[in-house]
Amino acid sequence: MTVLKTSMRNFFAHKGRMALSAVAVLLSVAFVCGTLVFTDTMNTTFDKLFAATSPDVTVSPKDASDTGETTSDNGKPPVLPASVLGEVRKVPGVKDAEGTVFSSSVTVVDGDKDNLSPTSGAPTIVSNWGKNDARTMTITKGSAPEGPDQIMVDADTADKHHLELGDEIGVITAVGTHTAKVSGIAAFEVTNPGAAIFYLDLPTAQRALVGQDGVYTNINVTAAPGVTHEQLKKAISERLGGAYKALTAKETADAGQEDVKGFMDVMRYAMLGFAGIAFLVGIFLIINTFSMLVAQRTREIGLMRAIGSSRRQVNRSVLVEALLLGVVGSVLGVAAGVGLAVGLMKLMGQIGMDLSTDDLTVVWTTPVVGLVLGVVVTVLAAWLPARRAGKISPMAALRDSGAPADARAGRVRALIGVVLTGAGGWTLYLAATADKAKDGSAWLGLGIVLTLIGFVVIGPLLANGVVRVLGAILLRVFGPVGRMAERNALRNPRRTGATGAALMIGLALVACLSVVGSSMVASATDQLDKSVGTDFIIQNDAGQLITPQAVQAVKATPGLEHVTEYKILDAELTTPDGRTSKKRSINAASPSYAQDLRTETVAGKLADAYRTDSMSVPEGFAKDHGLKVGSTVTVAFKNGDRARLTVRAITSDDVVLDKGAMYASIATVAKYVPADKMPLDQILFASAEDGQQDAAYQALKDSLHDYPQYTVRDQTDYKEALKDQIGQLLNMIYGLLALAIIVAILGVVNTLALSVVERTREIGLMRAIGLSRRQLRRMIRLESVVIALFGALLGLGLGMGWGATAQKLLALEGLTVLEIPWPTIGAVFVGSAFVGLFAALIPAFRAGRMNVLNAIATE
Fold first, then answer.
1. What is the DSSP track for 330-359?
2. 207, 308, 452, 573: least buried by Cβ within 10 Å?
3. Is the pTM of this model over 0.90?
4. Torsion sign (Cα): 414, 417, 423, 424
5. pLDDT tens digits, residue range 51-75?
6. Boundaries of every domain in the chain
7. CA end-to-end span of the chain
8. What is the Cα–Cα distance from 530 to 167, expressed in whole angstroms?
9. Is 203 helix (H, G, I), strand (E, B) or coil?
10. Beta strand pairing status for 245-248 and 57-60?
C-alpha cells in the first residue's frame, strides 16, 4: 500500500510530464485499435452485403468465378443455355429459379460521355433486374426498366453523379454501346461499399452484355421451406451431372470475402506496422521520461532506501507509475481509436468507398489488445530506469551521485552497439552482392534490423562526435549561448542519443523509401527511353480490356503510321525434351510490336517471331528446355487448338519490360483460336507519321472521346503517370510515418521540459550573473535543434544506406539506376531543424518565466 501511495503521489506530482508520455501511448494504441475497428467494420459491411445479395444457390458456368463474376478475357461473360433453367426448376426442393445476365467488364457513361465508374476501384456492374435484386433493393424513384430504352441506377451512383429520371446513359461492352434513359433509381437495404450498379430488362441485358438471346450467366435458385442450401446444391448438381458450378449462399459470400480479403489484409497489416513503429518510438520517450524522473529523485530514493525501503520496493514504485501511465494512455487510446476508425470511414467515403457508421464494429478483443499492448509496452519501457533506480545505494543517492556501474555499463553498451552495427553493415553488404533477389531480401531485412538496433545502442557514443561537429558548424556563430547549448546536449549523451534515436527511426524509413521510389522511377524512365519506340500508349488504367469498337476508332485515326494490338493468351507448352509447362502465357501482337518495344535478343531476330507459325522464348526458358533457334514447341491454346510453332528468336532476360514474355503474331494465334474465343487487346501502341506527333496525339484523344475509360499517353505522359503513381504511394506512407515523427517530437518536448526542471538551479544562477530571458530561450531552442539534427543525420544516413542496398536488389530485376532524391533529403534535414524549434517552444517559454531567486534556492 505504501508503494502504491508513493507511486500515486509521484505520478500526480509530474502530471504535465506524464501527459506527454501518455499521448505517445495514446497515439500508438489509437492507431492499433482504429485499424482493427476500421477493418472489422469493412468486414461487417461486406458480410452483410454478400449475405443479402447471395441467392440460396447459384448455378453458373464451370469457368465462372466463385463470386459470380463471369466476365472472360474476350469481354463477354461465359453463359449457360436457357434449357438449364428448365432443368433446375424440375429439381425437388426448388421453390423458385430465375435466369440472370450480368457483367462487370463494362463502362457506363452519361450523356456527356463522362465515366460513371467508381474512383475507388470498386466494380461497375450491369445486370438485368430480377427477383433477387428486388429482395435486397427498394425502388425509390421511377420504375424498373421495361424495354431496350430504359435503365435503372443505384441510388448512391445517382447521388454522386447527379443523375435524374430521363437522363441518357450509355453502356459500353465488347458487344457495342447500348444507350438508354434512366427509368428508375433503387436503393440498397444494406450498405453498398461503392459499386456502381445499373439494371436493364432481361432481353436487353442478353443482347447488350452477351450479344445473343436465350442464355444466362447465372441461375439464382430459392430453396423450398425445410430444404437446406447444402441439400439443394447437392440435388441440383446431381440433376445437372456436374456440368455446371453450383454454390450455396455461404460459399458465394465466402468467395466474395476472399476477393476483398487481400486488399483488407494489406491495409490492416500496413497500418499495424506503422503503429508498431510508433510504439517503438514511444518506447524511447518513456525510457527517457522515467530515466530523468528517476535521476531527479535520486536523493528521494536514497532517503527511501535509508529508512528501510528495499531495492525491490523502489523498483516496484517506478513500475507502478509506469502501469498507471500505461492504463491511462491505453484507455484514452482505445476511445481515440474508435474515433480514428470513424475518421477513416469518412475519408474512404471521399474517395468513393461508402462505409456506414451503422455498421461500426468494435469486437471485445480490440480494446483488450489495445490495453494489453499499451500497458505491456509502457511497463517494459520503464523497466530499465526502474532497475537502475533500484541499484543506486543509499549513500550514493544521498550524495546525489549516479550508479557506480554507469561508466562500465557505457563501455559495454558501446561495444555491443559497435558489434551490432558492424554485423548489420556486413549483412547489408551480403544483400547488395546477392545473386538472387529472394536471397538478398532476407539479408536486407536482417541488416535493417541489426543496423537500426546498433545505431540505437551506439547512439550515446555517436552523440559525442556528431553533436560536436554540428555545434562547430551551427552553434558557434551564436557565441556563448551556442556553446552552452552544445554542452547541454553533450551533458548526458545517453539521453541525447535516445531522444535523437526516436526521430531517427521515422526519418530512416522516409529516406529509405525515398531512395527506392526515386530509383524505381529513374530506372523505369531509363528503360522506357532505351526500349520503347512507340509514340503513343492506349490503355485502361483500371485494367479492363479494350473493346473492338475502341480498337477500330484508334485505327481510323488520321496521321498514324501504324497501330499495334497486344493480347495475352493462356497456353500449355510442350518442349522437345518432353516436358510440359502449364499456365504459360503467349503475348500475341501485331508484327509492328518489334518496333514499338526494342527487346534485346541473344539469338535470332525478334521480327522473325511474328512470321507464320513462329514464336520467341525467353533466355531462361530456352536454357531450361534446351531450345535454340529452329526448335519446335507444341502450344495448346486455352479455348483453342494445338499448334506447332518454330522458335525464331530467344529474348534476353536482362530486361524489365515484358521480362520472360513469349511472343507470336496475332495472325498465327488466330489460326488456332476461334474468333469468338480470342481475347480482347490488353493495350494498344501507335506511332505517328513523321512530323505528325502533335496532330496525331490530339486526333487520338478525339477518336476516343466516346470511350472515356481509355487513356492516351505519349512517352512523357507515361513517365509522369509512373512518377505520380509511386509518388502517391510514398505520400501515403509518409503520412502514416508522420505518426512516428509526432511521437518523436513529443519525446524531444518531454526531454527538454524535464531537462529544464533538472537544471532549475543552474538556470537561476545563469540568470543571476546576467543571462537574459531571450538568451536563455535561445539556448534551449538551439539545444533542441541540435538534438533534432543529430537524429536527422543518423536517420537520413541510415535510410539512404538501406535504400541503396534495396536498389541493388532491384537491379537484379532490371531496375539498374540508383537515384538519391537530394531535394527530398535536404528538405527533411531542414524540416528537422524546424521540428527542433517547434519542440522547444513550451520548454523555452517555461524556462524564461522562472523566478530567479526561487530557482537558485531549488535543491
1. HHHHHHHHHHHHHHHHHHHHHTT----GGG
2. 308
3. no
4. negative
5. 788 888 989 888 777 665 556 777 8
6. 1-53+252-404, 62-243, 459-538+713-859, 545-708
7. 28
8. 48
9. helix
10. antiparallel
